[in-house]
């Protein structure tokens, strides 16, 4: 049971870094801290583009886990567009880089 809505984003687990166990199976991947570099850019695009967050009166609302990841990755959301914050633009190489949210599945805490 979670007793707090304060979540900290630790980083991105890259499956290619998964550890092989002695029996030939694959163990848990190592978590790489995210420092705003482009090494995990595809994972960042998925995390900020495939989420249920909405902006209401200037505040981001939705699933606490998605909010924590979104905030830690340095992105903003407005209407149906997610884009990097001004200080995070060097990662994208352009101030015109945005992700358009095509379909939204709203967060349901009951599930």
From TrEMBL:
GO terms for cellular component: membrane. It is a multi-pass membrane protein. This is Uncharacterized protein. It is found in: Membrane. One of its GO terms (molecular function) is metal ion binding. The keyword Nucleotide-binding applies. Keywords: ATP-binding, Magnesium, Metal-binding, Nucleotide-binding, Translocase. InterPro entries: P-type_TPase_V. The lineage of its organism: Eukaryota, Viridiplantae, Chlorophyta, Chloropicophyceae, Chloropicales.
